[in-house]
């Protein structure tokens, strides 16, 4: 069995660029939503002519599509991820544009007939509606309200849950931007962390979970978590996910 110090060192040193989660094999598990976002997105990409993936990360999910549209563009705001995405998407003819999560989209009105996004940090509905062509589609899997609250509360103490990421709020905001929501569904999904190194890597990678996280600042909570896992087994939390699909009227 690895000691707490060994797990701490491993968690500090693991690479966290991109959205490849293969490092977690054997260290953590997460249920997947029943709707299969990658499959749905791939089917829509196969029918699209001009498509945009927002906040693509390292392009891992987008690179899985079986057939690329004639025009394929992705945005990413973190330069290391953008470089990963360029390499991954080059075989598909994809182009990566560096744009921050809070920036307006650097594209003309009506540029795309399909816009997709998996787990966007922010969603600018008015910008999505603007760059969609009439009759175009927006498809997104998003993190719902209260996601990972068990882990967040363990690390930071009880935190309030707002409605900023509530599915019904997304519906209202999409509608206000002039889009018609045609699908909206949500699920709670079980996550298990088998050691404290997996928790550290997750919090370093998914930085908005505990925004102030560093190993040194949270060492006492990490040690308490290590002790709990050793005595009672995997730490269990639940992610909240929702799928939303919306169309711009023709």
TrEMBL record:
Transmembrane segments: none
Domain Methyltransferase type stretches: 52-138
Lineage top rank: taxon: Bacteria
Transferase recorded as keyword: yes
One of the Pfam families matching this protein, by short name: Methyltransf_11
EC class (word): transferase
GO biological process, one term: methylation
Alphabetically ordered keywords of this record: Methyltransferase, Transferase
Annotated Gene3D superfamilies: Vaccinia Virus protein VP39 (3.40.50.150)
The EC number(s) this enzyme carries: 2.1.1.-
MF (Gene Ontology): methyltransferase activity
Name this polypeptide is given: Class I SAM-dependent methyltransferase
């Amino acid at each position: 069995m690895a000691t707490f110090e060994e797990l701490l060192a491993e968690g500090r040193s693991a690479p966290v660029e991109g959205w490849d989660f293969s490092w977690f094999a054997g260290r953590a598990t997460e249920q997947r939503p029943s709707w299969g976002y990658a499959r749905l997105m791939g089917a829509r990409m196969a029918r699209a002519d001009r498509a945009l993936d927002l906040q693509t990360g390292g392009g891992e999910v987008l690179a899985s599509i079986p057939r690329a549209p004639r025009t394929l563009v992705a945005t990413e705001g973190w330069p290391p991820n953008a470089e990963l995405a360029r390499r991954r998407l080059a075989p598909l003819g994809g182009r990566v544009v560096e744009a921050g999560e809070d920036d307006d989209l650097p594209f003309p009105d009506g540029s795309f007939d399909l816009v997709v996004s998996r787990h966007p940090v922010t969603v600018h509905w008015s910008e999505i509606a603007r760059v969609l062509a009439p009759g175009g589609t927006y498809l997104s899997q998003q993190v719902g309200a209260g996601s990972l609250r068990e882990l967040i509360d363990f690390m930071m103490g009880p935190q309030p849950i707002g409605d900023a990421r509530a599915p019904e709020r997304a519906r209202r905001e999409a509608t206000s931007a002039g889009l018609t929501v045609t699908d909206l569904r949500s699920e709670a999904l079980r996550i298990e962390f088998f050691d404290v190194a997996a928790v550290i890597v997750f919090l370093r990678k998914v930085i908005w979970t505990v925004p102030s996280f560093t190993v040194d600042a949270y060492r006492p909570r990490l040690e308490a978590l290590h002790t709990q896992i050793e005595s009672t087994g995997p730490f269990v939390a639940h992610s909240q996910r929702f799928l939303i699909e919306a169309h711009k009227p023709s």
